[in-house]
Design goal:
This is Transposase. Helix content is 38%, strand content 17%. The protein is an alpha+beta fold. The protein folds into two domains: 175 residues, no CATH class; 184 residues, Nucleotidyltransferase, domain 5 (2-Layer Sandwich), CATH 3.30.420. The protein has a seven-stranded antiparallel β-sheet with strand order 2-6-7-1-5-4-3. A five-stranded mixed β-sheet has the order 10-9-8-11-12. Strand 13 and strand 14 form a beta hairpin.
Length: 410
């Protein structure tokens, strides 16, 4: 499988100027291609193919006085900018036709020099090279100092140089990695994600929510107040913007590091992992939006998904309409809808359930049933009646579970 390895790079002041020039040239070529295709569409002309776009905007544009400075950067950077435009159009068309699953993809938009994130990409034909002294040689930029935290498993096929909002530079290598299959285990686990406890496992383990954003709220508030007092367009305002971006980057890096450690531990200890397919985008529009985004459920389940494939584990998602919370894990009875403040409840069968542990047990059982039965046949449970007085829920909704069809390549 393909993986990305990110490393911090430290360009010199001259190299920062060269990178800024490359960022700007790639942005101009991307915008020129988008503008040309939009003009052709408005004029009723046919769609401009990729080869024609490259010939007009790179080969011929370098010969004009207005775009002669495009020759100061590597041609691969410009070609990859057009490749990004083609990918954006392809994703938009497949989403428009219904072939692409998930949320609808918007058409490509123009890139701005004021965007918080700037990036360029070099492929193998650009002849970038990792030198013996650990530096990264890029054409027309020079040898960049890289902070290596681990070794690459194979020769990279491409490298992207990224500048984030905090002014940091990163080198992102795409490498082909061989799956490291772990010894088979016996335990399987279901995970119920929440806000009070970030994750509750079916074996009763509860992982407290670290709430990194809430813990940094006081410092962020102080930095935002200082930013609001700065005059727009001033140098001090640019410095204040960088300070706010660095504070947010520290929160995001801390959350990502913690989620990587937790997901690796869960995958190593269990042969199969099942989670609930939560609608994070919908929950992000409720009054719990700040806490939902602070938790980072989507990033965590994505880590579980690709690590399960890499280490030879089983990963599955249970349908979001599956009533894991109000179903008794002992007898299977589906009770009435419960308020969020009800953390424990009793079933008429005599069972006493912790709300989150019971949900994790139901997720585990549904994931196992959805994966396969003893003969490997697919299992689809029957219809589950909706709770009375529950809004926007219909009796004909099938609350069956489903497993994930594939895994996204990072």
């Amino acid at each position: 499988m393909q993986l990305r390895y990110n490393f911090r790079v430290y360009p010199t002041p001259r190299q920062q100027i060269e990178l800024a020039r490359a960022f700007g040239c790639a942005r101009v070529v991307f915008n020129d291609g988008l503008r040309l295709r939009q003009a052709a569409r408005q004029a009723g002309e046919k769609y401009i193919c990729d080869a024609e776009l490259s010939r007009r905007l790179i080969t011929e544009a370098k010969l004009t006085p207005e775009r002669t400075w495009l020759g100061e950067v590597s041609a691969v950077v410009l070609q990859q900018a057009l490749a990004d435009l083609n990918t954006a159009y392809r994703n938009f068309f497949t989403s428009l036709s219904g072939k692409r699953k998930g949320r609808k993809v918007a058409p490509p938009r123009f890139r701005s020099r004021k965007d918080n994130r700037q990036a360029i990409r070099f492929t193998k034909n650009s002849r970038f090279k990792v030198l013996d002294n650990g530096r990264l040689r890029l054409p027309k930029i020079g040898n960049l100092a890289v902070r290596w935290s681990r070794t690459l498993p194979s020769d990279p096929s491409s490298v992207a140089i990224i500048k984030d909002a905090a002014g940091r530079y990163f080198a992102s290598f795409v490498v082909q990695s061989i799956d490291q299959v772990l010894p088979p285990g016996e335990s399987e686990v279901g995970i119920d994600l929440g806000l009070t406890h970030f994750a509750v496992l079916s074996d009763g383990t509860k992982v407290s929510a670290p709430k990194f954003l809430r813990r940094a709220a006081r410092k962020l508030k102080r930095l935002q107040q200082a930013l609001s007092r700065k005059q727009k367009g001033s140098t001090n305002r640019k410095k204040a913007v960088t300070k706010v971006a660095r504070a947010h980057a520290r929160v995001a890096d801390t959350r990502r590091d913690w989620q990587h450690k937790l997901s690796t531990t869960i995958i190593r200890d269990n042969q199969a992992v099942y989670v609930e397919d939560l609608c994070v985008a919908g929950l992000g529009r409720t009054r719990l939006a700040k806490s939902v985004h602070d938790a980072g459920w989507a990033a965590f389940t994505g880590m579980l998904e690709y690590k399960a494939q890499r280490y030879g584990r089983t990963f599955g998602r249970v349908d979001r309409f599956f009533p894991s919370t109000r179903m008794c894990s002992a007898c299977g009875r589906i009770n009435e809808k419960m308020a969020l403040n009800v953390r424990a409840w009793d079933c008429p069968c005599g069972g006493h359930h912790d709300r989150d542990v019971n949900a994790a047990l139901n997720v585990l059982a549904a994931g196992q049933a959805d994966n396969s039965n003893d003969r490997g046949a697919y299992v689809r449970p029957g219809l589950v009646p909706a709770a009375r007085r529950e809004a926007v829920t219909h009796l004909d909704v099938a609350c069956s579970t489903r497993s994930v069809e594939g895994i996204l390549v990072l």
